[in-house]
């Protein structure tokens, strides 16, 4: 049964279950079992989630994450808690965690079979060191085929393309495959040769034409997850004078870019050094553009 005791050290992972009997959320011990083994999230990966960064006790881009969670819930026909319940539980978790930076996960599973009662909770934990290192050193990336066409999503809603589901085993397998090849990360391509996204990130390239600087990301309707970080950066970069583009992109566009990145909520803007062993852009372009865009991103809510 769920326990109401909280973990002993302030920096250890915090869990806060959304529970109508606890308006601020119910703190639970992350070192103890908290889910029933029959939960469909565990037995079928049937659920949704969000991962976001919190700085100084405040979640970043919370409304974008809550609206993507609601969109994922619609894909899966899941009835999820309202924004107030999430906000209260996140606040409880961040106060208990009490660190300058944190990763906040919002999770919903379909609950136990037949009960029609989703299980919803917030997990607050430390920001992984690896992401910070990759942001500084850059990434070696490989291209991997995802096996379906970029225009499949509207024709096959059962594939849940564009929802952030708990079924991330394929994404994690792609990352392990990359690591076995000596690479750090992956960019998926579609069967019809389009650039899609990373297993846990969006793809971004920059092109310079004279004084014009353009940021381009793959088509958002190509069966990828619409990135909240890409969205926030695009809005702010446009105000700073950048032109924006939304694909379609093919691998050649990556190889011809002045710089390229994988971008996501926790690792933020991680520059790509090489794709399939080929250098991307120039060291100077990468350094200048990464610094400029990181500053723009840091200024976003
Ligand atoms: N694409 C996929 C498949 C992801 O899992 C993620 C984040 O985890 C992203 C893109 C980037 O999304 P965000 O910027 O909202 O973190």
Write the layout of secondary structure elements.
Blueprint: E1 14-19, E2 22-28, H1 40-44, E3 47-55, E4 58-59, H2 62-76, H3 83-97, E5 101-109, E6 119-125, H4 129-137, E7 139-145, H5 169-180, E8 185-189, E9 202-209, E10 212-216, H6 228-239, E11 243-245, H7 251-255, E12 259-264, E13 268-275, E14 278-279, H8 283-298
Parallel strand pairs: 7-8, 7-13, 10-11
Antiparallel strand pairs: 1-2, 1-6, 3-4, 3-5, 5-6, 9-10, 9-12, 12-13, 13-14
Bound molecules: pyridoxal-5'-phosphate (PLP).
Pyridoxal-5'-phosphate (PLP) is lined by residues 51, 197, 199-202, 225, 227-230, 264-265.
Which tags fit this structure?
single chain; 301 residues; D-amino Acid Aminotransferase, Chain A, domain 1; 2 domains; 8-stranded mixed β-sheet; 6-stranded antiparallel β-sheet; 8 helices; globular; binds pyridoxal-5'-phosphate
Kindly describe this structure:
It is a single chain. The chain is an alpha+beta fold and 301 residues long. The chain folds into two domains: 114 residues, 2-Layer Sandwich (D-amino Acid Aminotransferase, Chain A, domain 1); 168 residues, Alpha-Beta Barrel (D-amino Acid Aminotransferase, Chain A, domain 2), CATH 3.20.10.10. It is 30% helix and 28% strand. It is built from eight helices and 14 strands. Strands 7, 8, 9, 10, 11, 12, 13 and 14 form an eight-stranded mixed β-sheet that branches. A hairpin with a 3-residue loop joins strand 12 and strand 13. The longest helix has 16 residues. It is globular, with a radius of gyration of 20 Å. It starts with 13 loop residues before the first strand and ends with a helix. The structure holds pyridoxal-5'-phosphate. The site of pyridoxal-5'-phosphate has 13 residues, from helix 6.
């Amino acid at each position: 049964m769920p326990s109401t005791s909280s973990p002993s050290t302030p920096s250890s992972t915090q869990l806060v279950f959304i529970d109508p009997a606890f308006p601020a959320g119910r703190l639970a011990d992350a070192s103890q079992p908290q889910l029933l083994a029959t939960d469909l999230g565990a037995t079928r990966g049937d659920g949704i989630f969000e991962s976001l960064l919190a700085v100084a006790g405040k979640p970043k881009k919370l409304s974008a994450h809550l609206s993507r969670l609601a969109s994922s819930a619609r894909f899966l026909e899941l009835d999820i808690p309202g924004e107030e319940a999430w906000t209260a539980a996140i606040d409880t978790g961040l106060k208990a965690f009490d660190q300058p930076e944190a990763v906040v996960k919002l999770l919903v599973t379909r609950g136990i079979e037949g009960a029609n009662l989703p299980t919803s909770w917030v997990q607050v934990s430390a920001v992984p060191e690896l992401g910070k290192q990759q942001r500084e050193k850059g990434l070696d990336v490989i291209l991997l085929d995802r096996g379906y066409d970029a225009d499949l999503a509207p024709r096959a809603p059962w594939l849940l393309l564009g929802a952030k589901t708990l079924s991330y085993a394929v994404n994690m397998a792609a990352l392990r495959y990359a690591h076995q090849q000596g690479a750090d990360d992956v960019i998926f391509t579609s069967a019809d040769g389009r650039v899609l996204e990373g297993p846990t990130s969006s793809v971004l390239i920059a092109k310079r034409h004279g004084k014009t600087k353009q940021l381009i990301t793959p088509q958002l309707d190509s069966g990828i997850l619409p990135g909240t970080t890409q969205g926030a950066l695009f809005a702010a970069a446009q105000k700073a004078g950048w032109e924006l583009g939304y694909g379609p992109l093919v691998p050649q566009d990556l190889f011809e870019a002045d710089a390229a990145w994988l971008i996501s909520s926790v690792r933020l803007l991680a520059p790509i050094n090489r794709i399939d062993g080929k250098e991307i852009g120039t060291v100077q372009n990468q350094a200048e553009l990464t610094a400029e865009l990181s500053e723009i991103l840091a200024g976003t809510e």
